[in-house]
Write the structure tokens for this entry.
Amino acid sequence: MSSMLSNTSVNSSFVRPVTFFINGFSNIPHAKYYYVFLSLVYAVTVFGNSFIMYIIYLARRLHTAKYVAVFHLALSDLCGSSALIPRLINMFLFNHQDVLYEACLANMFFIYHFMNMQSLTLLALSFDRLIAICFPLRYHVIVTKSVMFLIIAAIWIFSVTIFAILVGLLTRLSFCRSTVVNSYFCDHGPIYSLACNDNSINIFMVIICFGLLICLPLLLIIFSYFCIALALSKIAHGGDRIKAMKTCTSHLLLVAIFYLPVLSVNISALTASLHPNTRIINNSLSQIIPPMLNPIIYTLKTDEVMQSIKDMYKRNKLRNINIYKITLR
């Protein structure tokens, strides 16, 4: 793979690779079955998130600020999985593990960007729940569809800027030794660790991104639920308290499903030396399972969505009966 390097800088010591070789699993028999499993997960993810977006689009009762954010979460889940899983299947089931340098950086950007969109959209949903429970009389004034669209636009600009810098800084690195990436995609950490020149700024950006994009949103979500818990404790009637808590259960489940695997993977990587195969399994599952589960949780755990599905089913059934009666005349 090292023979695939070509100098593109005036400085002859600077080496930019033509391709990276994505290594994937090492010395695991029947590893292809894992990628087949990922393709099944992807199929469920595409169906589930497309279904929830279709329901939100058609059901008028779901045309609210909260479901603007839920629609965006489903879209981010769909795009993030589409950036990752089809590429995995192409690389490891069809043996196309050499990835062009530019394509590798572009794929890295989209995978990280849409994963970050999931994190920040969960933060936006926690803001929605905070206002709904702590300031119920002002909720429809503060949290409007326009406000939610502005929040989503702001997190897009923020995320694109951060990851453009993160990925762009890789172009200053020289890869004069190996171009074999010990991961399952164009992963930032394994790539910058291959560099021959100083990569301290890349390490610094990783720390900044982890703090800003994972830890800070999670801390803000925890703080919002602390405020929600205080507000619920002041509600005298137990039934009203339970009803308010039920509106948060689906969001809390999504937060747990997204953040717990991500945090556990990062903490285990810092505290222990993980085998590359273990890291690949941990990281890939933490990336692909939440987008698959999110639409299932929102469908089964949210009364508004379930009622909208039932109403649409009844309308379609009635329409089909009327069409059948007309054809019999």
About this structure: The CA atoms of residues 181 and 253 lie 34 Å apart.
